Amino acid sequence: MTVTGTSVAGRVVREPRLRNVRGIGLAASWAIAASAAVDVASAVGDWWTAQSPAVAAGDAELRTVDWYNLVTVVLGVGLLVVAPVLFIVWLLRARENSEFLCDARHYYSRPVGVFGWLVPVAGFWMPCRYVQNVAVASDPAVGPRGAWIDSYKNNTVTTWWVFWLLQSFLGWVAFRTEMGVYDGDPSQLFKVAVVSSIYAVLSVAGAVFAVLVIRVINRLQSSRPAVPWWHQPQ
Prior knowledge:
The protein has 6 helices and 2 strands, in the order E-E-H-H-H-H-H-H.
């Protein structure tokens, strides 16, 4: 929320107004899509690597494979930082807007939108509940006053979270499988390619629903009157 000044009894009273989250939402969406695209490219590189020894590739081809994999790793690491940061910035601003539009009490405080992802065990459900509250409080079907939002769920948010959990688990499996290759077991290359491919599929699906979550919440907020809940009738 940004702040504007209004004159009340000769004094300027500063009060918040609805923030425009479309720009940051679009940036987060593009970063998330790019990250999924890199995951697909990484899976292609893993298959390329797995097949190279079998076809007795020459040194030149092997160097090309190595460079390709290096580029995907660098891009992947960069987007692994940029995409979550943009998403969290968008989420915090969307949370502010939801509190502007509706006086419903959110289950978690605002900082959970940043740190909830890092909490051991509880991080598997805290961010989902946080986003669910934002989505429900943004819905025009929920009144501006006296609403209870914690028992309601948005299906798009739920689906996105399921794919996020699956992707996280497959990411751990992929890491363990790649460690087998680094330990000197080249027979793991095919397993790495298979796991990487499944991970890429989940990454694309998760990216699609993450972008949908952004679009849905932005659409819900823009469809409500840009009037704070405390100026709405009882």
